[in-house]
Design brief:
The protein is α/β, with parallel strands linked by helices and 304 residues long. It has nine helices and seven strands, in the order H-H-E-H-E-H-E-E-H-E-H-H-E-H-H-E. The protein is 37% helix and 19% strand. The chain binds S-adenosylmethionine. S-adenosylmethionine binds next to helix 3 and strand 2.
């Protein structure tokens, strides 16, 4: 679902910075190694791609500035439903993508979406643990890893595999998200509820996804990659809200409601229920949502 960037109110704060806070993905409010087709996750990934399409366009544009036009082979590491795959196929018309994911369900959905878009012949899927190297993948011009590296058991070992898969001079793009997105108006009860939920989720993620919030710049350098850009951008989507915003918020709150059982107060759980119960406060028919998310990116090159 595409929408014009003018439907969005965007604030970007771009700066070189040290990472003190947690990273994750809107979809990562679930235990690692859980059901490979967790409820709602593929749809959340697709809605996120649509909502933050301007961010993706800007990011692939920055990649093109560094990579040049002659990008033929791209690897999408932890591809999910193909957000990166499709954005990069559009940006680099001569390229084909190897989409790597450990979840067969994600790869099936990606394959079907590629076929529907008439891109089937430009996409190959590889069901594999991206943490165990990328056997048979060599001479990649570009590796894209969005919200996936923090899922791996040993990201440092995985980055060594990425380096080996890149051609000399090839680029790695890493994207991570700064914790859960926010949807509710700031400064009142709902905004404070989100702050408490976010804190509880951060605590759970610290146990379940210990590499969330890793110092990716240092890990990239340690893997022998030269970091050329590092950015944090705060994106905001306000009214008039693009189609799918309420659905995205609904799926998100439904997902974290289960995860947070026993980790926030019963009053907060009841307040979460009111956001998804079809009543007057349900996020699917509110017009006061403001989606806020900080997206962080690193662009690094394998030295020639
Ligand atoms: C949060 S999703 C991100 C998907 C996509 N890159 C995006 O930005 O929308 C993380 C993805 O990493 C995949 N994943 C998790 N652990 C993995 C592993 N060890 N090897 C390969 N893929 C993995 C999951 O199946 C999921 O599709």
């Amino acid at each position: 679902m595409a929408h014009a960037p003018q439907h969005q109110h965007q604030h970007q704060h771009q700066h070189q910075h040290q990472h003190q806070h947690q990273h994750g993905h809107p979809a990562s409010a679930h235990p690692r190694h859980s059901d490979p087709t967790p409820n709602g996750l593929p749809e959340i990934l697709d809605l996120d791609a649509a909502l933050f399409a301007p961010h993706l366009t800007a990011l692939t544009g920055r990649i093109a500035c560094l990579a040049g036009d002659d990008v033929r082979h791209i690897v999408d590491l932890g591809s999910g439903t193909g957000t990166g795959t499709f954005a990069l196929l559009e940006r680099f018309p001569a390229a084909r993508v190897t989409a790597v994911d450990s979840s067969p369900a994600m790869l099936e959905r990606l394959t079907s979406a590629a076929r529907n878009r008439g891109l089937g012949d430009r996409v190959r899927t590889l069901e594999a643990d991206a943490g165990a190297g990328l056997p048979g993948v060599v001479d990649a011009d570009l590796v894209w890893a969005s919200a996936s590296l923090h899922h791996l058991d040993d990201p440092a070992a995985a980055l060594a595999g990425v380096r080996a898969a890149l051609r000399p001079g090839g680029l790695l793009a890493v994207a991570e998200v700064d914790g859960m997105p926010k949807f509710l108006p700031e400064g009142g009860g709902p905004g404070e509820l989100e702050i408490r939920c976010r804190a509880a989720l951060d605590g759970l993620h610290a146990e379940r996804l210990p590499h969330r919030g890793a110092d990716w710049g240092s890990l990239l350098a340690a893997a022998g990659l030269s970091v050329e850009q590092e950015r944090a951008e705060r994106w905001e989507v306000r009214a008039p809200l693009p189609e799918g915003t309420g659905r995205y918020a609904f799926l998100f709150f439904e997902r974290i409601r289960g995860t947070l059982e026993g980790h926030v107060s019963s009053e907060d759980l009841a307040a979460l229920d009111r956001l998804i119960d079809g009543g007057p406060l349900d996020v699917r028919h509110r017009d006061d949502l403001v989606v806020r998310s900080t997206r962080e990116t690193w662009l690094a090159r394998r030295p020639a």
